[in-house]
Amino acid sequence: MRNSSATEPVRLLSPWALLLVGGLVVTLLVVTYHGDEVFMPSERQPDAVSISYAELLLEAHPDDTSLRLKLIEQLIALGDHVRARSHVFRLNEASGDVRFFLAELAVLEAQATEKAVSAQTLAALSAQLRGVVREGLSLEQLARLARHALAVNDPSLAAQVYLDLAERDEARRQQWFGEAVTAHLAAGETGTAARLLSGMIARVDSADDRQRYVSEAFSAYLAADQGEQAATVVHANLDVLDAADGALLEAAVKAGIGSQRYDLAAEILARWRLLDPEGVTALRSEMQLRLAAGQLEQAWEVGQQLANVAPQPAETLETKAKLGEWTGRPSEALGYWLKLLQQQDGPQVREHAWRLAAQLFDFDNTIRLLAGAGESRQLSDAELDALVYSHGQRGTPEQAERWLRQYLSAHPDHSLAWERLQQLLEQTQQLEAQVALWAERDRRFGVSLEQRLAWAHVHWELFDFQTAWAVLDAVDRQQVSEPAYWLLRAELAWALERDEDAMEGYQRLQALGVANSDTADERLITLYERHAPARALDVMMASWERKRTPANLTRALQWAMQLDDLPRLRLLVEQGLQLPEGERVGALWSARARLAMQAGGQAEAERLLVEAVARFPHADAVKEQLLWHYIDTGNKSALTPLLQRWEPLAHKRSSLWLPYATGYLLLNRNELALQWFDRFLRRNPEDLLVQAAYADALDNAGYFDRALRLRRHLAGLFDGRPATAEPDTYRTYLRLLSASGAGIEMVLRLERPDARPMLQIWFDQFSEQLERLNQPALKDEWLGWARRNGLRIDRYAELQQALRAHNASELERLLTGGGLDPAQRVEALQQLGASHRALSESLAALSPDQPDALQHQLRGQALALQARHPQGLQIGLRRQDFGTLELRGQTAEIARQFGRDWHASALFSRQRYSGPGLSDASPGVERSAELQLTRELGPAWLGAALEISDHDEGDRQGAGVFGGLQLTDTDSLEFHADWHRQAEESGLARAFARRDSVAISATHGLTPRDQFSWSLAQQRFSTLDGEALGHGRQLNLEFSHALFFEGPSWTLRSGLTHAAYRLADGPLHSVSQEPADYLQERFGQVYVASTWRRGFPGALNRETPQYSWLVDVLAGWQWTEQQVGYAINAGVGTRLLGDDELAFILGYQSAPRNGDGEPGGTLSLTYSTRFGR
Q1: I need a surface site. Which of 349, 396, 766, 881 has the fewest CB within 10 A?
Q2: What is the number of domains present in the chain?
Q3: Residue 458: inside a domain, yes or no?
Q4: Domain range holding 1060?
């Protein structure tokens, strides 16, 4: 620099020195240059530097494919898959290496990921590997391809690649064949692997290798389920096998057996036996071969050889046991089964052994085997039966009983063991032990009805009838319909003299359709003769219908005549005459005579009886009837010779004593009559009616004092005991009175002062007895006899007779003639249908001047009449709950009598609907009115009704007619016909439906306390818009019994209600609900109820002074719902100002019909007042 302070630069090398250095460098480069080969990839492990050199070289020679392939190999080895892929894409696509490297890179990249490779990815990689063309690949690439195929779970592809390697690489061919076999096995291609192994056997020279390949090929064929080929491989190479290959030979034999190549198996076995003559396993295999080939005898012989050379394991014992059974050697087989049990005690083996022992009748082993099993566990029913049977066949019931008792102490819950012990005790006739065991079984398990019957039979055999009865009576007999139960119960009741229970048993047998045996008929007849004579005749008729024999006909005819049952007597006569031997039945002649006499044919009756006496000279009954016939007709001329002719016989026949006494009384031979009476009364001192006839005979004979004393004595006896005589006995007494008529007339002609009063007393006494017996027909006959004899009949008796006969003219005569007290007049007027006049007279007659009893009767009659036609006004508040729907509001009712025959009533209400059962409907307030008009028509009445109602969902107009008829003093009949009337079947039906119906009902008074009522209705229901809901029938039956009539009254009721409706199909359009919501398709209930009341609170007219109350409870079983229902109603009413009543009534029902299971009820408060009379 010009102004710089630095000095001039100094040169380090001179130009000559620089020239010398350059020359040396050039010389060195020339010496060390080798060309491009220095940058070529080496065979050593690649690294980054060699990769870089190779890439530089490729840039200089981009078309050098071999260089690029080597680079790709190094990049893959180094793990740089991305750069390797980039070089692969630069290769020619037609080259086979491209597909190989792409597939390899795909596999390596998939393996490099941390996540598990999915099945879909593996399948895609396998497909990509299969797409590689293997012909141009190097051995190394083929080896890598095989490894990659195994890596993607495609051993089948790997096996194919290994086979390619084996063909191209002779030096390592055996290795590649081995790998191929392994790959085929891994792929499940065991058949292919086996064939490869078979081929390899021929390629090797070493015996050891051949033996190894034989074993592997055999295993492969077995794995491929090719047993025949497996056995063939072994068979073809037996020369390389020795005794040490016993397991392979055994397996080969089994394979031959399994493939049914018994020839191969036999030759293999022969070679095996040659190699190992003493081998136990070979013997076992030979036995299996013989078995499989069906050579059972040879198998048995081999088995015997096997037993001599070695201990027998469990499997061999089982096989030999089965062989023994198959070859017809069951005894030897059983021995092997028993030996097997000693080694291996299993339930199946033990079961097979005891069953075989039982088949061989080897009961000792059967019992031992089963008893041993019973020590450790509970036996099955079949095992227990086999053990008990074995004891029975062996004849050791005592040991069986001891074992069963020990077994039951360990297993008390095995019910069959108890049953078998029971049967064993029955077989050994241990009755006492049986009943004790029955009691224990009942305590533990309970017993069935059939078992209970067997239990009771054992007590029966022990003559312990009372305990047998207790066993049977422990069940609810109302639920039993088994005939055997009722038969045994009836027989026990008969043995215990329980007449009612015996009668119930035989009646239930009849109801079950079981025909009575002759013994049952006899017992029933005996029972009914004591308690219900008419039912005895029913049984006799049934017995006659079932078995038409002369004996049955005779018995039925005699009883029908005794009961004076003329309709059935005629029927029996008609049927009896159809019998071939009917002419030889004496009772048939008697019955024909009786019927002829009843029809007024006295001559025909006499002819029949005379002919019957001639036909049956030893029939005392016919002779007795002929005597009574002559007595009844007063035929003294015919009677006299008969009395004389048969007198020796009469002394021996007690049945003729009474006719003789009566006959002599008719003939006015009083002394002889008294002798026969004495004879009869000494035999029958308790027959009070004959004693009464005896008193008449004493009168006729002139023994007036004796007759008076006897009658006074008899009057005292009648007062002190109930009248229990049968109707036929009273009829006999009437005959006696008729026979003594002449004597009575004579007494009356003598005008004795005590004669007619005594007869009057006698008549009144027997009238009272007949009233107690409730025998109106005989009572009427008794009244007729009194009229014929001029006795006075009181007005009450005449009135009762007229009421029973509905004799209007007689009632009018009694009313006109006077002599009736006010209560009797009211009763007569009611019978004549003059209810208004009856009410007037009852009210007019009520006065303190009347006796208390008469006042009480008149008041009851007046209240009953007023209850039929009340007059007054009632207002109230009412709440009615149907379960899911509620109705509450105000009500008003007014009723009035118009004239004598007309009665009208009107009912008004205003009530509001509410509750969840309405769904989306809103009826709101309902206003309704009902008008009824009734007219009395003598014993009948007729009425009509009009009804209207409306609310927000619709309105209804309905009408109806009704009427009734008083059939008798205890029976009445009513009918109803309604159109569009209010429905009460459910809450929804009450709100949105209407009812059309025709109904009939009746009430029958059975006794003064008992009443039966029924009703039957055909009904049809529809919505307020006319859509049909359904139709059907309803039946109600009820029986009531009054315990107390007043103060307060108490009535028990029981009954049945059943309704069945057919509902309309399809949906309803006018309402949202279904028909089933309105109407229950089926409803059935049986119930019992009890009512206590004083008056009737809430009635329009109060019936009792000051206050009234009501308690009504009901419980029933609704079988259609399978539930119990109950209802309670209670009410109380009290007088406020005068002739009025304030009443409060509460009702509750557990499950009203169509109430969806919700309880319901009623609640009301009413005020009523009376006007009019």
Answers
A1: 396
A2: 2
A3: no
A4: 873-1170
